[in-house]
């Protein structure tokens, strides 16, 4: 103890109580009674965003809980998709760059007669990259990406659907530039039928109102709808989704690129000629089918060995033979008949 202020065996009380700021370990009775109010927790980033949105006049009439739901359930912040991650689809990439991404990046140039479309329809067989293209538009245009499937709009939000659509557009405007992506849009904007109930009719009407919203408003979000069943869309829906882009099955080169991309971090022993053979043998496979094929081929070397004793680096590389085996298991999911329908619809309605 420095400078001997506390004497061993002596009465040290005065020395202790003189120490600055000393507080006895147990509060005195009267201190206990006037407990300090609990400290206010600082607001999270999300809460601050909701506050900011509530203050914006564009959300007038919107409910806080709905804004919170939209931010937590529909706003997708995991946007690490670029065009380089998407195999093939060169025409679609070029078209969306010109029609959508450039205008998002340079709103000062793309106005007036050059103003971009506010509705885009991506149609074609399932698993061909429609969702990837929509995400890449958002990430390359640094736009917010709200994503919802129409079936969840019509089931989960039923009853509140109309309000939900209005709030979604209001939030998207506040956070502009924004993209609202609706998967399976055919089930939302379907041709009227007798089974259509009042709630979904009202939701559809609200969608049209929002889509027709002030065209000159630069904060108007871009609506991207994806569908495998474009035939289900009626004329009113087709008209509002001004641009229609066909997303076809991948061509041979795209299929090979996709296999290469997916095998990037795997051990494989496949030369250029063999890659070419995989490209030929996978004719008619979608991008999603190709992914399933690669996964199946990569599993094959783990069969017929004692997995409990083998070390990971002793598992043999994937070969063309594994792909041939996998091709017997993983079959293409799209039929020629379905493809013919898309091509026919494309010829009739694409613009
Ligand atoms: P959909 O056309 O049904 O929206 P997705 O974009 O969701 O299809 O694709 C499903 C999955 O299939 C993707 O996550 C990706 O793994 C794979 N895939 C499909 N098409 C492509 C493609 N052109 N390039 C790369 N991966 C693709």
From TrEMBL:
Single Gene Ontology MF annotation: ATP hydrolysis activity
Biased composition (Basic and acidic residues): 27-46
AAA+ ATPase domain sequence ranges: 116-251
Keyword terms: ATP-binding, Nucleotide-binding
Family: Belongs to the AAA ATPase family.
Protein name: Fidgetin-like protein 1-like
Source species taxonomy: Eukaryota, Amoebozoa, Evosea, Variosea, Cavosteliida
First and last residues shown, out of full length: 223 to 573 of 573
